[in-house]
Amino acid sequence: MNWDLPNDVTAVATEVDQHPDAVPAKSEGLFDNKTFSPLEDGVWYLHVQFKNSIGWGPTLHYRIGIDTAPPLGFSVTSPSG
What we know:
Layout: E1 11-17, E2 42-52, E3 55-56, E4 60-66
Antiparallel strand pairs: 1-2, 2-3, 2-4
């Protein structure tokens, strides 16, 4: 994932979990992209928070849906043959 950093940002905090409203626990430094470990099937959320000279801003939440299983088989029929 990558994002645009406002000019006044001095720190970034991120977290990936299955809680839609989580807040990252700590600063990880200053960066504009991050690679996360592979996720299992399910609904996950990326949380990103920026800090500037005033303090921490609101946490941004992004929903990630993972589904690697193929769909169940099905058949198609037409009433006209």
